[in-house]
Amino acid sequence: MSFWHQVFEISRKxxxxxxxxxxxxTMTAPFGAVALILIPLAVGTDAPxxxxxxxxxxxxxxxxxxxxxxxxxxxxxxxxxxxxxxxxGIDPAARFVGAVVATATLMLVFEILLAPxxxxxxxxxxxxxxxxxxxxPLVAIGLGLLGTIAGGVTTSLGTRTSLTPLxxxxxxxxxxxxxTQALEGLRLGRGIGNWLVLxxxxxxxxxxxxxxxxxPLEEAIS
Amino acid sequence: MAISVFERQLRGRxxxxxxxPDQGSNQTTVGAAVRSITSTAVIFGRLCQGREAxxxxxxxxxxxxxxxxxxxxxxxRTGTTTDSVQYNPSVNSKQQIAxxxxxxxxxxxxxxxxxxxxxxxxxxxxxxxxxxxxxxxxLLRVLATLQRPTSGSGVVLDADLGxxxxxxxxxxxxxxxxxxGLFAELSLEENLGFASRLLDxxxxxxxxxxVAVGLGGAMRRRADQCSKGMxxxxxxxxxxxxEPKMLLLDEAHAGLDESSAGLVDIVADRVVAxxxxxILVSHEPERLNVDRAIRMTDGSLExxx
Lengths: 222, 305
Description:
The complex is a heterodimer. By secondary structure, chain A is mainly α. In chain A, about 85% of the residues lie in helices and about 0% in strands. Chain A is built from nine helices and no strands. Chain B has a single domain, classed as P-loop containing nucleotide triphosphate hydrolases (Rossmann fold). Chain B has ten helices and ten strands. In chain B, the strands form two sheets. A six-stranded mixed beta sheet of chain B has the order 6-7-8-3-9-10, with helices on both faces. Chain B has a four-stranded antiparallel beta sheet with strand order 2-1-4-5. In chain B, helix 8 crosses helix 9. Chain B is globular, with a radius of gyration of 19 Å. Chain B starts with a helix and ends with a strand. The chains are: A mainly alpha, B alpha/beta. Chains A and B meet through helix 1 and helix 4 of A and strand 6 and helix 7 of B.
């Protein structure tokens, strides 16, 4: 079976599992929306301030609540399931890429579900909406890559639940900064090329690292 | 010929064991059970026919043991005849499946395996006995190439343990652990279909295997909605899908009642007839139908007379 066929099967399985539980739709997204509603209650109904804070808060919520999605996905595969998959002879790199595709898809859905909430509550002044078609997937892929690598590292160490957020959140700062500054650049009518390059470079670095580390990480799991 | 003989034997097994092909449904009448069992056997036969002729011969010979003694014993138990059973010449009983030499494994401060030695040849069914915590499961994981030993050397399906060759042979090994490896949120059919596609066994293989172990009516049920016994059967169906050269069954009879335990023998016999070898761990030695047994005590192996 080809590499990409293996990737397809892994991501299909992960997305099917998520479709059955619908956790992103029924729990994480509403929870994120509630967090976005609570912030105006805390800082007051200063419309210009909320409009300015909106994009930054959106990406912060995406990052923090995205960790829940990543943790949930990692929890699906217990030791017996990991053994089952390893003995199917799947290339660890294909398994990594498949997991990234599934996680990034879930993150993208989460981003899309939260976007109308931010628009409705914060009324951010964002121009060049078309660029979001590039920015949203780049951030989703970056978080998917980071989450899958962090999940692999912490699973091999046997400390998943406690260590994964601690690994993901600091390492996702370049993604958070790139996404926030890109939207700020669009609002001010500046060029956002540098920030897009940053997002792309982070994704590429994570992808290369993840593929190279896939086999050692898988073998480190005992 | 081989297929029809196997169908007959499978049918006999189900009759003798008193198990229907569909534990998930409520077929209670004798007529419905007979029809379902017959269709199970027919579908199983088709499963074999779907492969290349030579391969089918290997597979379908799996219902019969290559050893006269065990074949006769089982025929007496199940009421099937083995007159037409022929020795499958494709099985090379001298071919080495696995060899471990002075294997040791230490996890943290605990020495799990100590100088374990084991040779496993094609056509062998070996029982692995021992108390809880003696290292049986760890030994199976070492043999499955999932756990690297910390000392000693070993070869599994011509791949040296610790070398990159293990990735090449993994798809020819099936480990059925004491915990089900199926994904809880997926149906039995989806779980086995996932394995079947990744192993290039064809899309229909999963369904046929589930029917063969009596789960035809429950194949669309989620794994987390199945009983322990059904999950165990589904794991055995996974073996039928994978057609491994080395089958490692941990707590082989766990979750299976007396009437369903014959499935373990059927599945193990198929692996053996295909030129493979089987190791069965069980806490019920009287239910093991094996050629020889070894005992693990405190991480070391010794033959059981």
